[in-house]
Amino acid sequence: xxxxxxxxxxxxxxxxxxxxxxxxxxxxxxxxxxxxxxxxxxxxxxxxxxxxxxxxxxxxxxxxxxxxxxxxxxxxxxxxxxxxxxxxxxxxxxxxxxxxxxxxxxxxxxxxxxxxxxxxxxxxxxxxxxxxxxxxxxxxxxxxxxxxxxxxxxxxxxx
Length: 159
Fold this sequence. Notes:
By secondary structure, the chain is mainly alpha-helical. 61% of the residues lie in helices and 6% in strands. α2 packs across α6, α3 packs across α5 (71-83) and α3 packs across α6 (104-124).
């Protein structure tokens, strides 16, 4: 079934940008998941590895906040990455916290994640020109910056 047929199957909902974005995201993330599976990480765990590399010594609360996940999910992610040998917990700023650091294996994994995600992006967005990719990135950043929860009025609706 073509993309046009898929969206037509949902009637007017298929014309909604949110549904189109979600459908695209599902396909792209499935491809990313497949590309990261040989590295034994999910896209979320891969993101955590890169975040820890760039923010060495961060604690689990900070990591969870950055990833947008709850405390239990953060603990599970950290436990899994530690079992994989990618990160280690060291004493934190106080007795209640741990400082998260990549191990040598974690640094190698980070490099492989960055290579895999670059290859995936090139493949997933190959239909777009370089200029279109830059514009798409700019538009996504604008949506993130201005909020997408429906609470901000449309600037073109006269309000």
